[in-house]
């Protein structure tokens, strides 16, 4: 553990430490671990610490159970990858209609040069996202798997460091 962080947290009040210990997810996990250790050393109510420990373990376990399903990971990350392609199609549609609004509503002579540039940029974006679809999908799945490994490590660290 980080000794400097531990020394700085030892100076905090018990209420502040319990806030760091209890606060869900938004607090640095290392601070949460050290706060739990310090609270235990200060003789804080072990029943309360034990209940909070179980809630933290349950939260992490639930996250693991949800994301360990390979089909769920593929489905979730396909949605993310498809969303980028849809944004590209939306970009293409929006700027095409924006470029053609004068032509459509006023029947004026139309300059196709600028519109063709916007259409080409949109088509290039969609083609690029389509060609890199599998690579993006695999990278997202790999990141989720690494996140699961981090969650497993956190569970082991909780069991090792918190003996209440």
Indicate the topology.
Layout: H1 3-10, H2 14-22, H3 29-41, H4 46-67, H5 70-106, H6 112-131, H7 133-161
Helix pairs in contact: 1-3, 2-3, 4-7, 5-6, 5-7
Folded structure, characterized:
There is one protein chain. The chain is mainly alpha-helical and 164 residues long. 84% of the residues lie in helices and 0% in strands. The two termini are 18 Å apart.
Summarize the entry for a quick read.
With 164 residues, the protein is mainly alpha-helical. It contains seven helices and no strands.
Q: Keywords for this structure?
A:
7 helices; mainly alpha; 164 residues; 84% helix; elongated
Question: In angstroms, what separates the terminal alpha carbons?
Answer: 18 Å
The ordered H/E elements are HHHHHHH
Beta-strand residue percentage: under 5%
What structural class do the secondary elements suggest?
mainly alpha
Major sheet, described briefly? Answer: none
Cα Rg: 26 Å
Helix content: over 70%
Shape assignment: elongated
Number of strands: 0
Tally of separate helices: 7
């Amino acid at each position: 553990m980080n000794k400097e962080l531990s020394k700085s947290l030892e100076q905090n009040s018990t209420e502040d430490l319990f806030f760091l210990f209890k606060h869900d997810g938004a607090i640095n996990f290392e601070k949460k671990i050290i706060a739990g250790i310090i609270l235990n050393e200060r003789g804080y109510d072990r029943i309360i610490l034990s209940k909070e420990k179980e809630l933290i373990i349950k939260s992490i376990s639930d996250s693991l159970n949800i994301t360990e399903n390979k089909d769920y990971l593929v489905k979730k990350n396909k949605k993310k990858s498809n969303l980028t392609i849809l944004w590209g199609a939306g970009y293409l549609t929006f700027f095409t209609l924006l470029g053609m609004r004068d032509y459509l509503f006023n029947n004026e002579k139309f300059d196709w040069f600028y519109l063709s540039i916007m259409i080409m940029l949109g088509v290039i974006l969609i083609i690029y996202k389509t060609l890199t679809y599998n690579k993006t999908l695999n990278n997202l799945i790999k990141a989720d798997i690494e996140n699961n490994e981090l969650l497993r490590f956190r569970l082991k660290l909780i069991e090792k460091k918190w003996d209440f």
